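R.M. (postdoc): so does anyone remember the format we settled on? I'll just put the structure tokens first.
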């Protein structure tokens, strides 16, 4: 049995058609039908961005992680935070994070990082211990946990609502965030504003152009109610370029989900997907000029 990523339950929310978040187009064709679960994805006929459309309002989406199912989300994050942190650290290693860190610490200062969608703050605590000045952004009750249990500076707001001064941060991290946003372009615009010239944006998101997504279709584990967009390498690169970022590398991992094949087959598929760049999840290393 294939288990999908945790998601808030499908609820009856008002939805409205929206233009494509990448090209602004209004023509779509069917992409993934998750009819048994009560939702479906379409693909923009112009640029190919896969999305749920019509979409719920932004307030309804934020309510899912706050008032409605915030405690369930927090329990899920606490249960899995060690595994999630390990995956984040491995992905950052692939992206050459040590070199970024060395570059930013050459003058003896402490570089500033903002983790948007920081969950329980495990990555921020790890970076704080390495000498970073850390700030988190998280709309769910996980923000309170990160503050109270780890003593971190985490704002329970959206990035835009934090109103950070321009050019505040050397690095912005957003792990499994952009696929949840009604307007990912607005996030990229705000991230660019708060990053210093030459700063890095490190994004992690499911890869719909990966092997597993192509194999599983609507049964793909990332085709869930909470994922409003499913990016490919091409569409995420195009969106970053549209908001003034230069992509310096894309790193993928994950060939087959646990339980889909015997362990030796899964191990071989994982190695092959990583080496071929068709992994299930991707980290994009982008930079503000």
């Amino acid at each position: 049995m294939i288990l999908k990523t945790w998601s808030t339950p499908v609820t009856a929310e008002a939805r409205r058609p929206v233009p494509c978040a990448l090209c602004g187009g209004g023509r779509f064709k069917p992409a993934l039908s998750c009819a048994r679960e009560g939702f479906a994805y379409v693909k923009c006929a112009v640029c190919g961005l896969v999305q749920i459309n019509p979409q719920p309002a932004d307030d309804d989406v934020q309510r899912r992680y706050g008032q409605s199912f915030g405690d369930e989300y927090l329990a899920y994050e606490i249960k899995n935070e060690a595994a999630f942190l390990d995956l984040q650290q491995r992905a950052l290693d692939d992206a050459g994070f040590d070199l970024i860190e060395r570059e930013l610490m050459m003058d003896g200062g402490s570089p500033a990082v903002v983790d948007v969608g920081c969950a329980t703050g495990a990555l921020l605590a790890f970076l704080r211990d390495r000498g970073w000045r850390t700030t988190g952004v998280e709309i769910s009750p996980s923000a309170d946990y990160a503050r109270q249990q780890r003593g971190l500076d985490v704002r329970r707001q959206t990035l835009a609502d934090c109103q950070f001064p321009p050019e505040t941060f050397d690095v912005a991290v957003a792990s499994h965030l952009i696929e949840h946003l009604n307007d990912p372009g607005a996030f990229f615009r705000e991230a660019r504003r708060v990053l210093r010239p030459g700063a890095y944006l490190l994004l992690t998101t499911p890869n719909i152009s990966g092997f597993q997504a192509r194999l599983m279709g609507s049964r793909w584990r990332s085709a869930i109610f909470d994922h409003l967009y499913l990016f490919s390498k091409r569409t995420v690169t195009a969106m970053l370029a549209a908001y003034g970022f230069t992509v310096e590398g894309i790193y993928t991992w994950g060939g087959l989900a646990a339980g889909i094949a015997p362990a030796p087959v899964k191990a071989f598929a994982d190695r092959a997907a990583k080496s071929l760049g068709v992994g299930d999840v991707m980290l994009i290393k982008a930079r503000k000029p």
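R.M.: ...and that's the designed sequence above, right after the tokens. Also worth knowing: The chain has one domain: 15-287. The mean pLDDT is 94.
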